[in-house]
Amino acid sequence: MDVLEERVGESLRAICSYDESGYEIHYIREDIRETNFEERTETMTRRARDWRPLEDEGGPLGERRATLELWDESLFIHLPEDETRGLLFAVEPEVGRKLTGFVEECWTALENPSESAYIAVQ
Predict the structure, then answer these.
(1) Predicted structure pTM score
(2) What InterPro entries does the record point to (predicted)?
């Protein structure tokens, strides 16, 4: 977890680990603490634990390494260790600047195909 704090600094929003018996919040940035993050953590960790990948494990894509969810105000990264344990952390969207920029370009293409350099998929 020191790696996260070192790499993203003030952009780190929260860190939480979970296992079959529950979850542990390791860090919540002060301004996030005020948004009832702790109350929502149980639901988020349960959903992360229950989430299933798009491809079966061991398939042609290999093992699932991480999942990401991009929200307006946060980028959530889920690192599953196995079927019952993992790490969730949230950072400011700017941390994943290249990824978030790409996602925004895709949304622009979907919402306004005539304004996009991409060919809209019909």
Answers:
(1) 0.74
(2) DUF7522
